[in-house]
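Researcher: Let's continue the batch. This sequence belongs to Holliday junction branch migration complex subunit RuvA, and it's 202 residues. Same format as the previous ones, please.
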Amino acid sequence: MIVQVAGTLTAAQPGYVIVMAHGLGLGLDIPRETYERLPGVGSPVQLFTHLIVREDQWRLIGFATERERAVFLDLIDISGVGVKAALSVMSQLGIQGLAEAVRQGQWKLIQKAPGIGAKMAQRIQLELGTKWGGTTEVLAEPALPPDAGPVDDEVLEALRLLGYQDGEARRALGQVTAEEATERLRQALRWLGGGPQSPPRS
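Model: Same format as before. Here are the structure tokens for Holliday junction branch migration complex subunit RuvA:
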């Protein structure tokens, strides 16, 4: 199973990107929020992925964060909701917008997504509401520790340059105890396991 790709972003448009990795051009369908987080074409990029395998087609879906992928998987787990419908809902509402619509029972907001009818919107609202247990906390981006300041901003930027996504970098910073930036970075990398997979050199 392909769960993550890292390489060079060679093309990007709303809903679709191409990532060149180890000499292979990988086409990925993406939701709107992922598109909005992308770096410029020609830059290194790392995406979490989910592979859809059909008899006549392999389809790779890309996400900027693990949370986006988790929401997508929850959506396609609902009877009648396929890849196109799930991406449509995510692109229309975003993760937080979807979470609020589910929590408040606002299925009509979900229905605004292209291709989503009333019955499907109601089913999505009901089933996600049951699965998520009425809370949206699990969908929130990890926060930095309360005392986070310029030092952690510096370490965060260093982790981004090393290829880590914001979410995993913030989780790592939540585990470190040192005060000096270099040592905080060293502890964060140790917690992360020594470093991400490096994107291929162009």
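Researcher: Any comment?
Model: The longest strand covers residues 4-13.
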